[in-house]
Design goal:
This protein is of the alpha+beta class. The chain is built from two helices and five strands; from the N terminus they run E-E-H-E-E-H-E. 18% of the residues lie in helices and 33% in strands. A five-stranded antiparallel sheet has the order 4-3-1-2-5, with no helix packed on it. The protein is globular and about 35 Å long. The model has no long low-confidence stretch (mean pLDDT 82).
Length: 95
């Protein structure tokens, strides 16, 4: 069986800074190869994609969340659900 490269695209959205919003001048994105993170973190990602397409996001002070995309599947999850190995690939930029 061939070993396929799976890229996870990560986008930070919301929050007080309004990352990724329609009128935002801030963009915070990154990507990583899933095989580059620990098996435990890979399992977390897999579970997030399996549980639901859009899990309820608990209220927080700034409402920061992440959009994860692999292939054609995308989900949004609260910041607290993301391992640091994933959020660490995200870089901020001005548009």
């Amino acid at each position: 069986m061939p070993n396929f490269l799976i890229i996870l695209k990560v986008e930070k959205i919301g929050g007080l800074a309004g990352y990724g919003g329609e009128k935002s001048h801030l963009q915070s994105t990154g990507q990583l190869e899933l095989s580059s993170i620990s098996q435990e973190d890979q399992n977390v990602v897999e579970q997030l994609f399996k549980t639901t397409k859009k899990p309820p996001i608990p209220p927080t002070n700034d409402g920061l969340r992440y959009r994860l995309t692999r292939g054609t599947e995308s989900i949004e999850v609260p910041e607290s659900s993301i391992p640091s190995s994933i959020s660490g690939c995200v870089k901020d930029s001005f548009l």
